[in-house]
What we know:
By secondary structure, the protein is mostly helical. The protein is built from eight helices and no strands. The longest helix has 23 residues, at 167-189.
Amino acid sequence: MAIWIIVTLLLTPWLWSLPIPKDLFRVNFQEDVQESRQNVIWKRGKVAPSDLTVYFVNWPREVVNQRLSAVLENLDIGNYFFAGHPRERVGVEERQKFFFFQFLLLIIGFTSPHLNKYKKFLVFYSGLALLAVFIFKWRSFEQTLPLAPPFIVLMALGGRQIITWQKKWRILFISLAFLEVLAFGFFYFKGILR
């Protein structure tokens, strides 16, 4: 199984251009609380609450909602598999993280008979990754990296499953995957996809 994971990692465009995040573990709760208070004040007609009413303003819910929105952004499958996601329209930079054939591998990986062996890891790791996303508010291109290992494991299971297919279907899938990697590599190294 380790060879399948390594092959999947090597075929992932995400890792070809992955910059190292500079502020991965930055947590500033005072800044988050202040920002949330300002949002609540702005929503309520720009009337600043006094020290006594600050406990009745719903800024704690605002802090949690901001962090939950980061978690939901990380759970959006479009952020991983589909470049040109609609978020680009509002100025969020999107890059292709996985190929389309890897999306098919992910779906096939869910049907793998070997999935039971990795279920505990996938559930435990995904839970920890989502908790880290909630705490650190990871939402940019570089910071969706913690949720990649479950995808990689499922895609490796899908690749392992494809090897058991009939020869003609296996050759068809591999040739289409190769053409997609070749086209992406050509456009990436030409500078079109940067």
